Amino acid sequence: MRAVQVREVGGPEVLRLRELPDPEPGTGQVVVDVEAAGVNFIDVYHRTGAYPLPLPFVAGSEGAGTVSAVGPEVAGVAVGDRVAWAMLPGTGYTDRAVLAAERTVPLPDAVSSEQAAALVFQGLTVQYLTSSTYPVGPDDVVVVHAAAGGVGQLITQVASARGATVVGTASTPHKADRARRAGATRVVGYDGEELRRAVDEVSGGAGAHVVYDGVGAATFAAGLDCLRRRGTMVLFGAAGGAPAAMDPAALGKKGSLFLTRPTLADHLVDRDELLHRAADVLGWATRGEVQVEVGGRYPLAEACRAHEDLESRRTTGKLLLLP
């Protein structure tokens, strides 16, 4: 099989396409012919060693394709089934992947492999953020940082579909336009005063119910300042670096705020939870309630370029590798 392997951590140049032995499924496992693989920031963290994996490893952790072999003691998954998966390191940037059968998600005919690879990881993230971490409802005022990014656009679409008012941040006019098309009522730059004014205007001065922040250092303080009394700050990532340390007492001084740092892994604790959340996400796609933007498609041999584009923020939407 062909796979993009990392033998030493470092920059995008360590992503090398190699020929590796064809995989065989073990107990409880399936082999999938990969048709599309998602490119995510966690792949960058694995590549650089920020989130260490044993070397060498195959890059990527999300994809979609067709089951081509089934190991012993597998129930409910058969050869020929179309499936998707996420949060499985070593299974993405390859044309054949071995997966635990219980971590696969069946795909409806209405959802293509490209759609699934672009949606499942980020969609599961958005599902738990908007349904469990803070259940967004009608009349909520929601701040979404990086609203033109893959997760940002999905949060914006889901929140606005539920009747919430979304104030998004974006770095360029082009990205601001994409955030508006996703449903944002107002889109501003990352300046804290400009953001606060926009939130005050749409909330009558009360502030936002929730802030979704996947950026971190550059946006965290401004997000806290936008919240109303007992508002919720959801720091779900730190693509721009970790925020500065803070005294928890500051949350009380700002109005008894709630602060959480959730992760997807803690919201997929068993197969039942995975299938429940995935059914929501794939239902959004099947019913056309969310539109997934693919910002770039690359062959496996150009995984290095995909990472360069992702890290430079030259793209919007989701990047895919197509074996």
Verbal overview:
The chain is an alpha/beta fold. The chain folds into 2 domains: 2-120 and 268-321, Medium-chain alcohol dehydrogenases, catalytic domain (Quinone Oxidoreductase, Chain A, domain 1); 138-261, Rossmann fold, CATH 3.40.50. It is built from 9 helices and 16 strands. Helix 2 (113-133) crosses helix 8 (271-286) and helix 5 runs parallel beside helix 6. The radius of gyration is 20 Å and the shape is globular.
Q: Concise description?
A:
The chain has 323 residues and is of the alpha/beta class.
Attribute tags:
Quinone Oxidoreductase, Chain A, domain 1, six-stranded parallel β-sheet, seven-stranded mixed β-sheet, 16 strands, 9 helices, Rossmann fold, single chain, 323 residues, alpha/beta
